[in-house]
Amino acid sequence: MTSGEAILYCLAFLNSPYAQERLVSGRLPTPKGFYQVSEEFLKEIPVVLPADRMVGEQIIASVKRLVEGMESEKAEKEEAHLFPLVLLSLKGTASVIS
Q1: Based on the number of CB atoms within 10 Å of its own CB, is 80 exposed (0-12), middle (13-18) or buried (19 or more)?
Q2: Is the pLDDT of residue 6 over 90?
Q3: Distances (CA, A) of 3 to 9, 43, 60, 92, 93
Q4: What is the pLDDT of residue 93?
Q5: How far is CA 38 from the centre of its chain?
Q6: For the chain, what is the domain count?
Q7: Which structural domain, as residue segments, surrounds residue 35?
Q8: For the segment 17-73, what is each residue's pLDDT rounded down to a tens digit?
């Protein structure tokens, strides 16, 4: 895995619905309605190696397509494919990357 692929893989977890839930759970938004993303918050989001190499490759490919840009409707479909893969990896929790 290249360093670029590792960054894409991490982005999948950091932008997942799981991370969003952790961000808002038990925290108050700022007066402007935003949530602070701190180092402490980032420590709460596990980035795990998938139990299956193919899942990891699919995650990287999906994030790469999203980063490259696409129409909103296509992006929603891509995320609908991506986020279950992230959750699958989280549930399998093969090993946590620290």
Answers
A1: exposed
A2: yes
A3: 10, 20, 12, 23, 21
A4: 53
A5: 16
A6: 1
A7: 3-96
A8: 999 888 888 888 889 988 888 888 888 888 988 878 899 999 999 999 999 999 999
N-term to C-term CA, the chain: 16
Closest CA to 81 of 67, 63, 69, 54: 63
Per residue, the 3-state secondary structure of the chain, as one string, reads CCHHHHHHHHHHHHCCHHHHHHHHCCCCCCCCCCCCCCHHHHHCCCCEECCCHHHHHHHHHHHHHHHHCCCHHHHHHHHHHHHHHHHHHHHHCCEECC
Q: Residues 48, 95: contact at Cβ < 8 Å?
A: yes
How many other β-carbons are positioned within 10 Å of the β-carbon of residue 98? 6
Q: How is residue 83 written in tokens?
A: 């986020």
Which amino acid belongs to residue 74? K
Whole-number pLDDT of residue 98: 44
Q: What is the pTM of this model?
A: 0.82
Rg of the chain's alpha carbons, rounded to an integer?
Answer: 14
